[in-house]
């Protein structure tokens, strides 16, 4: 058995340390990992995009349950260590006692809450973990909600921009004279302020907060100067302090942080510490790059390998979509320094490079940050820049007569130039891994080198390196863009439609920088669906972006004629409907009449110009479109159930009819076929449908994610419902979840495989509030969807579709 | 002398859409792009005879509704890896009225 290693804190630093540890010596330790949050490690830097709605939590998980299981980590999430007993080599957490041979303290930092009246009111929150994000998102969903963010630093501004993005009224209170004063000089601070104000964020600098006001919860914030800002939530983002309490209690040496040596050992050599909770040579670190260096050193110390942590310089980028800002080093003014400044106010570009004794010691870039890595590289290597001084401010592309080609700039970087600041990955590491391991995609590079895997701001550089190294063999399509009109994938597009409030196709194409003027036959129908399902009642369906079948509400056949399928609820029909169908077939000389697999009657070979007249006759007999052409609810197939069958346990026909009447007209990512069987003999073949119900004595077994087309797949059981009402609610909520998450043309079984059945169950089975939520959203969207498209066209809509524009030279004309 | 025949108003065709004109040589598809340019091509995909007028119009191209071949409305050539060509017909726009050059169609019909 291995030695016992206990790790306190499941954050980015300890997560990275475990990776290094398992890589170096997978069997040496039995690891127990405690985390105060009820979840494993995720990329905390990316909480801002999650808050902004541009990424989901799933996107930022770095270690999932499978990873922990694979490495035999005993995960104790949601458990806070309350005490370390060094003599007994034991830690205590909520009734759990665990002994250790080695202990790693990675408790991170806690947000600093300014000690003012009202700081404990409900509605006051920090911006530190996923729970905070969820609280803010919930607050932003209320109409006209207002947020006051205290702190105009990196974190505060990312929170402010994200909340604004979600539609909140946002005020930022900042104690200092300009924003992000630790990273920016006043000029760049001004540009940033102007940009944020342009987005509707109110910025109040030199704001001294006096108190948070409110009775039962936050109502407003009062400043020393008497200003009052109304607030539904107050986000405190004024700073962090190392979380050192248990270390202090255990008698370890603690100053500002837990004191560690170059090997990451605390004053007790069997106890290591790393991350934001430590202090090394009097310095406490808060950015991720040095923490990852610590992780590397700690892993080596644990495996008995020589290693030493060296202080590093760091650079900063703000992660607010649409704001480009980069700063590195020291840029304060002083007598022994010179500076080179480039301003172009009209396009919002500001660049400032600070020199001392002909070397770069600091750089601030706003608006155009592509050269950040280059300046930072020059800074770190302390290169004398006298030779290039005249053109230094224009960037790397202007050095040595090189052309203005971004690829050339990347190609020209020295091998040891740092590309990914977060993970300390240099150019040669990336190009080496691409060559040796045959990497071809961004994801490959991320998983092999970690470059671009944390904050993601170097993604462009990594892609350029891929392109420069692989040449034409690099196919960025490995990230699966929706179509050649964009580099974004379906999920990104959907998320950005919501996050940016994009409500028309031109808005999407403009804001997401489509490469074509009006899309293509792949992206237009997808965008039309995403807009329609995201903004029911607001977005106007774009007929010209629909495939012909959905445009004319019939199915095109190989000869250009159409097939017409009237709806038969749950597969039920009657003599009156059948007579009308027979009459239509005779009247319009319809060559083929066939029964479909979904218990409907199909009239094949109808001429396009006859469609409205055919529909008029079917409408007159009470029939509406069967939507046999739709990426939407097609059919609910049923058996005769307890009405007739001697084995039937429930009214399967009735439930099928009820589902179909409730859900018809809804558009979905791909077609949805359902079935209800009255007993487990399953005559309606419900177990190969997108959604199926098997009635049993005790109620309704709900199945989903079956397929019987290109792929054959039996359904999975979603849950058991006791009543018909409950079954309805679950089926509707499931469909709505699919409508919101499914990629266009992705059937339910593929969606379920991608997102995982567990997450689907968590949303529509386990959590009643969420289920209700999805149900209600479906009901709302149905208000605009349940209009019979045939009737509309019988009444004259889209008449141009069904008539020729003109004729010429035809025999009857010639006769005139 | 070109025989220009009026076939209707540009407003009768939806933007990014098409209408059909019946002629002695079969249906001709008349397209209107997002920027109000008009084009006419044979309404028959050389692949399997799909009615191109029923396809999705994007830029100055149309995607066939049957098997997604894409054609340039300007040249009638199949795009991408597919090889094929549809006939194009000259159009003239005077104000809102679209005229088609009927000579080609009539000449083919007379053959």
Automatic annotation (TrEMBL), chain A:
One of its GO terms (molecular function) is 4 iron, 4 sulfur cluster binding. Its cofactor is siroheme; FAD; [2Fe-2S] cluster; [4Fe-4S] cluster. [4Fe-4S] cluster binds at residues 639, 645, 679, 683. Belongs to the nitrite and sulfite reductase 4Fe-4S domain family. CDD domains: NirB_Fer2_BFD-like_1 (cd19943), NirB_Fer2_BFD-like_2 (cd19944). Residues 419-467, 482-531 form the BFD-like [2Fe-2S]-binding domain. Residues 630-770 form the Nitrite/sulphite reductase 4Fe-4S domain. Binds 1 siroheme per subunit. Binds 1 [4Fe-4S] cluster per subunit. Pfam families: Fer2_BFD, NIR_SIR, NIR_SIR_ferr, Pyr_redox_2, Rubredoxin_C. Residues 4-281 form the FAD/NAD(P)-binding domain. Siroheme binds at residue 683. Residues 557-621 form the Nitrite/Sulfite reductase ferredoxin-like domain. Residues 315-382 form the NADH-rubredoxin oxidoreductase C-terminal domain. SUPFAM superfamilies: FAD/NAD(P)-binding domain, Nitrite and sulphite reductase 4Fe-4S domain-like, Nitrite/Sulfite reductase N-terminal domain-like. GO terms for biological process: nitrate assimilation. Pathway: Nitrogen metabolism; nitrate reduction (assimilation). Transmembrane segments: none annotated. The keyword Disulfide bond does not apply. Keywords: 2Fe-2S, 4Fe-4S, FAD, Flavoprotein, Heme, Iron, Iron-sulfur, Metal-binding, Nitrate assimilation, Oxidoreductase. It comes from Pelagibacterium lentulum. Coiled coil: none annotated. This is Nitrite reductase large subunit. PANTHER family: NITRITE REDUCTASE (NADH) LARGE SUBUNIT. It comes from the Bacteria.
UniProtKB/TrEMBL annotation, chain B:
SUPFAM superfamilies: ISP domain. CDD domains: Rieske_NirD_small_Bacillus. PROSITE patterns: RIESKE. One of its GO terms (biological process) is nitrate assimilation. Residues 4-100 form the Rieske domain. The keyword Magnesium does not apply. One of its GO terms (molecular function) is metal ion binding. InterPro entries: Rieske-like_NirD (IPR012748), Rieske_2Fe-2S (IPR017941), Rieske_2Fe-2S_sf (IPR036922). Keywords: 2Fe-2S, Iron, Iron-sulfur, Metal-binding, Nitrate assimilation, Oxidoreductase. NCBIfam families: nirD_assim_sml. This is tRNA-(Guanine-N1)-methyltransferase.
């Amino acid at each position: 058995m291995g030695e016992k290693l206990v790790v306190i804190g499941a954050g980015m630093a300890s997560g990275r340390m475990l990776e290094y540890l398992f890589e170096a010596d997978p069997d040496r330790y039995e690891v127990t990992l405690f985390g105060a949050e009820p979840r494993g490690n995720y990329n905390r830097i990316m909480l801002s995009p999650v808050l902004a709605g541009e990424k989901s939590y799933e996107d930022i998980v770095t270690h999932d349950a499978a990873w922990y299981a694979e490495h035999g980590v005993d995960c104790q999430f949601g458990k806070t260590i309350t005490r370390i007993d060094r003599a007994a080599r034991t830690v205590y957490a909520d009734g759990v006692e665990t002994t250790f041979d080695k202990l790693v303290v990675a408790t991170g930092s806690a947000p600093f809450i300014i000690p003012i009246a009202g700081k404990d009111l409900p509605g006051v929150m920090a911006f530190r973990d996923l729970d905070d994000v969820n609280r803010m998102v919930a607050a932003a969903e209320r109409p006209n909600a207002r947020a006051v963010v205290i702190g105009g630093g990196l974190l505060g501004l990312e929170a402010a921009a994200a909340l604004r993005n979600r539609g909140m009224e946002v005020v930022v209170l900042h104690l200092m004279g300009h924003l992000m004063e630790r990273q920016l000089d006043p000029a760049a601070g001004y540009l940033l302020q102007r940009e944020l104000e342009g987005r509707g964020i109110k910025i109040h600098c030199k704001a001294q907060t006096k108190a948070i006001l409110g009775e039962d919860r936050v109502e407003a914030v009062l400043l020393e100067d008497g200003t009052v800002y109304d607030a539904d939530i107050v986000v405190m983002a004024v700073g962090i302090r190392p979380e050192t309490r248990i270390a202090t209690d255990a008698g370890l040496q603690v100053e500002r942080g837990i004191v560690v040596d170059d090997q990451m050992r605390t004053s007790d050599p069997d106890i290591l510490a790393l991350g934001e909770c430590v202090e090394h040579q009097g310095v406490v670190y808060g950015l991720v790059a040095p923490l990852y260096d610590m992780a590397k050193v700690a892993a080596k110390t644990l495996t008995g390998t020589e290693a030493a942590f060296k202080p590093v310089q760091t650079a900063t980028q703000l992660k607010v979509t649409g704001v480009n800002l980069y700063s590195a080093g020291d840029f304060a003014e002083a007598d022994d320094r010179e500076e080179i400044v480039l301003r172009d106010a009209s396009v919002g570009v500001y660049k400032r490079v600070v020199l001392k004794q002909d070397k770069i010691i600091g750089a601030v870039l706003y608006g155009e940050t592509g050269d950040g890595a280059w300046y930072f590289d020059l800074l770190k290597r302390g290169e004398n820049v006298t030779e290039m001084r005249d053109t230094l401010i224009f960037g790397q592309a202007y050095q040595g007569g090189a052309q203005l080609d971004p690829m050339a700039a990347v190609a020209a970087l020295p091998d040891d130039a740092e590309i990914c600041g977060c993970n300390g990955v240099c150019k040669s590491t990336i190009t080496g891994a691409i060559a040796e391991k045959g990497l071809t995609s961004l994801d490959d590079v991320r998983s092999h080198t970690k470059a671009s895997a944390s904050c993601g701001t170097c993604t462009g550089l990594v892609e350029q390196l891929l392109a420069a190294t692989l040449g034409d063999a690099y196919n960025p399509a490995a990230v699966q863009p929706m179509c050649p009109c964009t580099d974004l994938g379906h999920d990104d597009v959907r998320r950005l439609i919501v996050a940016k409030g994009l409500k028309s196709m031109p808005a999407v194409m403009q804001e997401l920088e489509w490469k074509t003027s009006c899309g293509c036959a792949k992206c237009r129908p997808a965008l039309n669906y995403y807009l329609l399902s995201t903004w029911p009642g607001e977005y106007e369906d774009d007929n010209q972006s629909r495939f012909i079948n959905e445009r004319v509400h019939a199915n095109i056949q190989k000869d250009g004629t159409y097939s017409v399928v009237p709806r038969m609820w749950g597969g039920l029909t009657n003599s009156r409907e059948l007579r009308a169908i027979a009459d239509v077939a005779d009247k319009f000389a319809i060559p083929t009449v066939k029964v479909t697999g979904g218990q409907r009657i199909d009239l094949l070979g109808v001429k396009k110009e006859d469609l409205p007249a055919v529909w008029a006759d079917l409408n007159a007999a009470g029939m509406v479109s069967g939507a046999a052409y739709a990426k939407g609810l097609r059919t609910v197939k049923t058996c005769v159930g307890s009405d007739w069958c001697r084995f039937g346990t429930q009214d399967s026909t009735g439930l099928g009819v009820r589902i179909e009447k409730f859900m018809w007209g809804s558009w979905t990512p791909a077609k949805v076929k359902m079935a209800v069987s009255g007993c487990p003999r399953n005559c309606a073949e419900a177990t190969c449908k997108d959604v199926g119900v098997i009635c049993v004595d005790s109620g309704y077994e709900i199945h989903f994610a079956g397929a019987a087309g290109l792929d054959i797949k039996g359904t999975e059981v979603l849950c058991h419902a006791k009543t018909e009402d409950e079954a309805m609610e679950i089926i509707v909520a499931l469909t709505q979840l699919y409508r919101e998450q499914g990629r266009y043309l992705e059937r339910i079984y593929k969606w379920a495989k991608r997102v995982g059945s567990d997450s689907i169950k968590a949303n529509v089975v386990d959590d009643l509030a969420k289920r209700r939520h999805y149900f209600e959203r479906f009901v709302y969207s149905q208000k605009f969807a349940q209009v019979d498209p045939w009737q509309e066209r019988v009444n004259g809509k889209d008449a141009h579709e069904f008539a020729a524009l003109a004729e010429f030279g035809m025999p009857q004309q010639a006769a005139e | 002398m070109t025989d220009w025949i009026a076939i209707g108003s540009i407003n009768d065709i939806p933007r990014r859409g098409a209408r059909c004109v019946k002629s002695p040589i079969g249906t001709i598809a008349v397209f209107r792009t997002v920027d109000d340019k008009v084009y006419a091509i044979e309404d028959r995909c050389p692949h399997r005879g799909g009615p191109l007028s029923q396809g999705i119009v994007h830029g100055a191209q149309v995607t066939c509704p049957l098997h997604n071949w894409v054609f340039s409305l300007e040249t009638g050539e199949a795009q991408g890896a597919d090889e094929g060509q549809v006939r194009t017909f000259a159009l003239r726009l005077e104000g809102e009225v679209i005229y088609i050059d009927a000579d080609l169609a009539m000449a083919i019909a007379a053959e």
